[in-house]
Each structure stands twice: as C-alpha cells, then as structure tokens.
Prior knowledge:
The chain is an alpha/beta fold. It has helices at about 1-30, 50-60, 100-110, 125-135, 145-155, 155-165, 180-185, 215-225, 275-285, 330-335, 355-365, 365-375, 390-410; strands at about 40-45, 65-70, 90, 115, 140, 170-175, 190-195, 235-240, 240-250, 255-265, 270, 295-300, 310-315, 350, 380, 415, 420-425.
Amino acid sequence: MIRTVAALIGLTVTLPVDLAAVGLAALRGTRPATHRTHSPQTILISGGKMTKALQLARSFHLAGHRVILVESAKYRWTGHRFSRAVDRFHCIPDPGDPGYAQALLDIVRREGVDVFVPVASPAASIHDADARALLDAHCEVIHGDADIVRMVDDKSRFSEHAASLGLLVPDFRRITDPAQIDEFEFPPGREYILKRISYNPVGRMDLTRLSAHTPERNSTFARSLHITEDDPWILQEFIAGQEYCTHGTVREGRLQVYGCCVSSAFQVNYAMVDKPEILRWVDAFVSSLDTTGQLSFDFIESAADGQVYAIECNPRTHSAITMFYDQPDLAAAYLEDDHPMIVPRPTARPTYWIYHELWRLLTEGNRASRLRTIFRGKDAILTGWDPLPYLLVHHLQIPSLLVRNLAARRGWSRIDFNIGKLVENGGD
C-alpha cells in the first residue's frame, strides 16, 4: 500500500511538468508527411493500453485509414483512446472470456471493419488465434491461425520446429514433472534454466542456474515450481552473451516489416541494429510457416562462439514497432501483399519511455549514459501532433490502475508505462 500511495503522489507531483512538456510539444510539433492510401480501410486494433497499439493506430491513421481501438474494461481509461489517430474506442471482454470472439465480431460488423490487427498481450495471442476462426469470413486478420500460434507460442515446440529447419536454438527438454530434473544428465560445464511455457509475468525473470554441480539446488528449485503435464516448463541451456529482440510482420510467409534491437530481461529502449545473421534466421523460419501475422523473436549471441541462437518466439506485436514512428510505409507493409520489406528509417531516433529513464537516472549509476539516452532518443508516446496520450497515460491510465489496486489491497512488482499496466502475479 505504501508503494502505491507513493507512486500516486509522485505522478501528482509531475503533472505540472508533463502539462508543460505536452504544451511545448504541441507548439513545436508538426504533422508528419505520409503516403496516403488510395483505398482507405477501417482497421480494428486491440490491446489499446499498450504503446505498440498506439503506434500502429498512428501509422494507419496517417496513411488515411479509419482506426477502431479496443481494450478490456480494466483498462478503459487508457490514454490512447484520446489519440487523434483513434476514431472510435470500445470496451470488450477479457480475451479469456467466452464472449471475447463474439464481441470482436459485433464490432467488426457495427464499424464495418476491413482488417483486424491484434496487439495481443502474452495471455491473449492464443485467444486471438481462436477468434480468427469466427472473424475470417468478415474481415482480414493479421494473425496466425490457432495451430501456428499454439506451436510458436510453446517454447519447446517452437524449438523443435526451428531445429528441424537446421536453425540454431539452445539445447532444451520439455519438463512435465520435477522428477525429470533429477533424472536429467547435465552436461559438464553447461548451465540450464527453467522457464514456464505459459506466460509468467513475474517469474519470467528468475534465471536460477542449474548444472551438474548443483544437484540439490536443481531438485529443490524444480519442486518449488508448479510443473505438471497441464502446466509444462522448458529446461533450456543458458547461453551467456548479448540478447537481441526482433519484430516481424509477415504476409503469407513473406517478411514485410522487420526490426532488430539489443535486448534484455526488461527492455524499454529500442534502436535498430544490423545483424544479418538474425535476419537470415527470421526469414528462414517465417518462410517455413506460410502464415500471415506478427512474429517476434528473442535471440542470444553467444559470448563463447559468436553464434546466434533463438530463445523463443512471441506471436504478437513487439514494442520495437515504436522504432517505425516516422516510417511512412508501415501501414502499406502491413496491408499489401508483396510489399518490399521495410525497416526503421536511418533517421529514426531510439525510442524510450521517459518515466523509466528518469527512474533509472535517480536509482542507477552511469547517469551520463542515461542523459545521453534521453537527449539522443525520443519518448515513444509523446508527439506534438498527438499530445494527449502522453499526458493521460501518466495521469489517468496508470493512476486509475493504482487506485484500483489500492482499493483491492493488491500488490504489484513494477509499473510498466510501455505496456500500460502494473506487473503483478496472475496478471495479463
């Protein structure tokens, strides 16, 4: 409770500064030049609380399309609903609700939607794939079908498919019983980690190392987790090195939008990097699926041998899409078959979220580096031609969630301004 009250006070104190920042941005901002489409369409975007949904809404809007934004009732006060890029906003049931797909269909019919672009939370990507079966007859859906999404979302099945293509992945085993850890012969000199195959918003950053030298810890740790046949985990070799993440938008197996960034366990800074070996890996994998959708990958470049290994695939929009804020061809690359692959423009500044940067500036070392990040990059939400989302994410959306948690006496581990939520156990 004390942390929640402190966060609310902190956001209240910064309100005058943000009002000034929004006013200055609005005075200095100009509407970006765009490539207007000759065939405007109505685009439905889900995940309205997240910055990546706002970025796509802006890109489609600037290309001349009509944008409908949706989100669950918990996030009804998302600041993004007030964006100039959003024509209509609707609340819908949570993705796990039995009425979710029907609610999407009702909006598709009511608003005359031509294309549905799910901006799925980790807990929603499979539900969006299931909803596609109902929506396909009424609009195009930029999302894989249920079989594809379930395969790539399952860390062990994804690794199996990649390995079958001759693509590098860390050594792995599917674990359905803690006893399997006791029986596994850990190779000498190599370490492994356990990762839940279903989304784990808090525990996903627990990288407890297991090895042949720690049999007691291996067993104790495995038994501290809820590992069953219905809730499997993956035992994956830990490879030390530099992490990378990618966003990819694919049409019929063809990569049309691609971005690659340096990454980490909690990544809120995005700048395009050129890693040809990662692009070749992604292109080979998506070509094998012959699917349409958004596929994001995590990689590790081994410090030992320099090889690049894919760690997992997330069948949804990546926050790295914010790098495309000044890319006028983004909407066309999403919507048109055989569009040439686009990447962020060389002029694009790295994106960040200013409240995360300020917190690091106050609590971490190397302040000169943090200041360089702030002045060389740009806030992913704030833009002069569309300033309200920035103000209302920080002073309506997040405060409303904090007040809700305060009333329910619920805790949280982190405020994530990027995805517009409080990270908490059992969260989405």
